[in-house]
TrEMBL record:
This is HTH cro/C1-type domain-containing protein. CDD domains: HTH_XRE. PANTHER family: HTH CRO_C1-TYPE DOMAIN-CONTAINING PROTEIN (PTHR40730:SF5), TRANSCRIPTIONAL REGULATOR PROTEIN-LIKE PROTEIN (PTHR40730). InterPro entries: Aldolase_II/adducin_N_sf, Cro/C1-type_HTH, Lambda_DNA-bd_dom_sf, ThiN. It comes from Halobaculum gomorrense.
Length: 312
C-alpha cells in the first residue's frame, strides 16, 4: 500500500526543489541564498546542482510545474514572494495535481489497483485564503517598490503620510486589506517605508478602499497623495476620472451610505455612465482640521503605483 503523499514526497518534491534550486541559481543567487530561500541545507543545494537527487521526468516536463517554478523563483529572487507565499503556491499546485491529474496518475502507476477506483484524490481544498493573502502581499511589495523608486514621489506625500493598500478579492473589513504599517513619510526628500506590508494596519487608506467597494466598484488597491489641481489635470489628460467627496475625516466614518466617499462614488455610478474606469480617483479639497488628499484606485497595487509615477 502506497499513499499519494508518498508519491509527493518521493517524486514530486525532489523534482520541484531541484528545479527551483536551478532557477534561483540562474538568477545569480548564491548557494547559501538558495538554501535560505528554500529552507534546506547548502549540502542539499549542492546535491540538486550536481544531479545527485533522483527526479521525475513527467513532473519536470509538466507545463504547470514549470510555470509555477518560474513564478516562485522570480518572486523569491526579487523579494516579492515570502517563503510562506512560495509554500502556498506549491501546495496549491500539489492539491490540483492530486485531483485526477498528474499526481493521481503517478499514484496509480505505483498502485495499479487504483486504476479502477471510482473516486479521485481531491483530499485538499485548492481555494486557499492564505494563498490570496500571500499573493496580495507580493503584489503590494511590487507596488511599494515602484513608488519608492519614483523620482519626486516624496514631494507627493501629504502631511498625514501616504500609504499603498491592496485587499483580497472578497474584502469587507480592515483585516482583509494589506498596507504599510505606520504609512510612508517624506524624510528629507526621500520616501521612507517603515516595514514590510501587513494586513489590518491601515484604517485611513484601507477605509477609503472599502468604502469604494461598498459603493459597488470592484477596486482592489488604493494610494493617497497630496491634493493639487495640477494632479487632477494630469489625471484628466491620462483619461482617468476623479470624483470629489465631502472634506470629512474618513477615519470617523463606517463606510456605509453616509460615508462621504461611498456617497460620492454611488452618486457617480447613478450618473450618465454605467461605471468608472478600471483606474479612477477620489479626492477632497480640505476643510477645518482635514488635509486635502487625493486617492488613486485601481485593480492592484502596481497599477495605481504606476499611475502615481506617471503623474511626475
Amino acid at each position: 500500500m502506497r499513499f499519494i503523499e508518498e508519491v509527493v514526497v518521493d517524486e514530486f518534491l525532489p523534482t520541484v526543489r531541484a528545479m527551483l534550486a536551478e532557477a534561483l541559481r540562474e538568477r545569480d543567487l548564491t548557494q547559501r541564498e538558495v538554501a535560505d530561500a528554500l529552507g534546506i541545507s547548502q549540502s542539499a543545494v549542492s546535491k540538486y546542482a550536481h544531479g545527485d537527487v533522483a527526479t521525475n521526468d513527467r513532473v519536470a516536463a509538466d507545463d504547470r510545474v514549470r510555470e509555477t517554478v518560474e513564478r516562485v523563483a522570480a518572486g523569491l529572487a526579487s523579494g516579492d514572494l515570502s517563503r510562506v507565499g512560495a509554500l502556498v503556491e506549491v501546495e496549491v499546485l500539489i492539491r490540483r495535481l492530486e485531483a485526477g491529474d498528474l499526481l493521481a496518475d503517478l499514484h496509480e502507476a505505483a498502485m495499479p489497483e487504483l486504476a479502477g477506483a471510482e473516486y479521485d484524490f481531491a483530499v485538499h481544498d485548492p481555494d486557499s485564503g492564505l494563498r490570496d493573502r500571500e499573493r496580495t502581499l507580493a503584489s503590494l511589495r511590487r507596488g511599494v517598490r515602484t513608488l519608492t523608486a519614483t523620482s519626486g514621489f516624496a514631494g507627493l506625500i501629504p502631511n498625514v503620510g501616504s500609504n499603498l493598500a491592496e485587499c483580497v478579492p472578497d474584502a469587507v473589513a480592515i483585516d482583509d486589506v494589506a498596507a504599510v504599517p505606520g504609512r510612508i513619510f517624506d524624510v528629507k526628500g526621500t520616501a521612507r517605508v517603515p516595514s514590510d506590508p501587513e494586513f489590518g494596519v491601515s484604517e485611513h487608506v484601507a477605509g477609503v478602499l472599502l468604502s469604494v467597494r461598498a459603493a459597488g466598484v470592484d477596486a482592489r488597491a488604493a494610494v493617497n497623495v497630496r491634493y493639487d489641481p495640477s494632479l487632477l489635470a494630469a489625471l484628466s489628460d491620462a483619461g482617468i476620472e476623479a470624483v470629489e467627496f465631502e472634506p470629512r475625516d474618513h477615519s470617523e466614518t463606517d463606510g456605509g451610505p453616509d460615508d462621504p466617499v461611498h456617497a460620492a462614488v454611488a452618486d457617480r455610478l447613478d450618473g450618465p455612465a454605467d461605471a468608472l474606469g478600471d483606474v479612477f480617483a477620489v479626492y477632497q479639497t480640505g476643510g477645518v482640521g482635514v488635509e486635502a488628499v487625493l486617492y488613486v484606485l485601481g485593480p492592484d497595487a502596481p497599477t495605481v503605483a504606476r499611475v502615481v509615477r506617471d503623474l511626475r
